[in-house]
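G., before I forget:
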Amino acid sequence: MRSVIRLIWFDLKHELKPPVWITLQWFTFTIQLFIYGALISQLVTATEIGNYQQFYAVGFLVMMTFDIGSHAGRDFVEDAHEGRLPYLLSLPISRSKLFLATALKGGFELALMLTVPFAITLSLIGNLTVVSVAAAVATLFCLGFGIAGLMLGLSFIAFKSSDLYAAITTGLSAIIIRFSTVLYPLASLARASPGYASVARFSPLTYGADLVRLFLGFDPSILLNPVYAVAVLTALAVSTLGLSMFLLQRLVEGVKSG
Amino acid sequence: MTELSSILQLTRNDFSYFFRTKWLMAILLSLHLSDMLVVALVYGKLMSFNYFQFFVPAIIVMGLFVAALDTGRRIWLAIREGVIQYYLSLPISIYGIVAAYLLAGGLAAVVYSTSLLLVALVVLPAQAVWNTLILLPFLFVLAMGLAGIAASLAAFASTHGEYYFAYQQIVQTILLVFSTVYYPIAVISNYFPPFLTNIVSANPLSLAAEAMRQYTFAGNSVQPLFLINILLASLPFAIIGATAYLIALHTIQVKGKL
């Protein structure tokens, strides 16, 4: 376990000394919530949402989770291209431990970057219980691990073509966020176009955002069935992380990336 | 070879580099087209006014802005990877290099935003498309000004590794959020104190978005004073950016590094 902790700290210390990226995430969240969110909420007149600023705050947390989770894949590709991955694979450490270190590092990053935004969101919404807050945190972590697993799985495309990988993941990211309930409820997507709502049902962010909102006390009538949400998020996290672990086991030392 | 032809060759080289970066094209197109065809449409269903009509012209300006900002990334890469040393060895003055980068940045941004305009014209009827031709030179100067902001960021961040992207995100967030790209000035004046509302009104992105809404899509006659305002708001950024980049190039020329 010491080797896993050492690997995690080796990567994390670059982000903590100085914590530029973490502070930047907090800054972006604060500006987006108190300027963009506040001003847009003055324009939103749909009564079913209630306070749009609160709705947006949860949506932005989910977007941040997605962004941080997807970094895991990008880091993996960079490691491969910069020669760090072959070095890591040659270390006297098992593949499963290497995978555990990558996953835990992602978890720590997520915790660090979400602490302040999550606290601000909770204070904005107010009137919460310990159980509901814990359930919301668990949902965000489950979503984060699922997205990280998905991106790690996709990162194996990068061994064929890094350009193709970057184009697929970045294009996919924008579409996954827009076609989801991160920024608006499913009913609004359906009113804009029934096709949009159908696509949104395939986005993991839809289930993550709606489940977090349910735990934080939003009106359940505008949210998806939580049973489906729990099932989808669990299946996503388990399957993508399992797939990534399988692929890492098969990766041979000295692999060349294109 | 004359200085002018060298500038034009370098401009062409940098201009084509922007469009050859596949992952960047994937990011920009997926972001702006999904903003136009999904976000604007769905937000419109949540509001009591025609947000689609309001936001689509602004997305063209967002495209112009983001494409112009990419000039900074290219300058930053050129400094970091030593390409700038090669440029300095060419028979072209440092003034020529600066001019080429700003021209390429402005041109790439205008071409990219024109592609968004063509899509916008399909989804939103424009009352006076020909007014866009009058706007184009002013949008080009604006794009050069925005490229100037990016150039000064790149010159400033070139000694701080990856921090360039942090600076870029801060500037991008602030300039977009404190503008009328996302919300009308009436909403902003209800929320901000008068001095901040004035700053938002003078933001070149607000001016360009308003020009696009009023002159291209609403079909109002073009007001020369408004166009002069765009010039006055953009030129300082272009001059500051050009000076910062010029100083950086001069330092590299004299000391060999920044």
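The two ends of chain B are 29 Å apart (CA to CA). Chain B has one domain: 3-255.

More on Monday.
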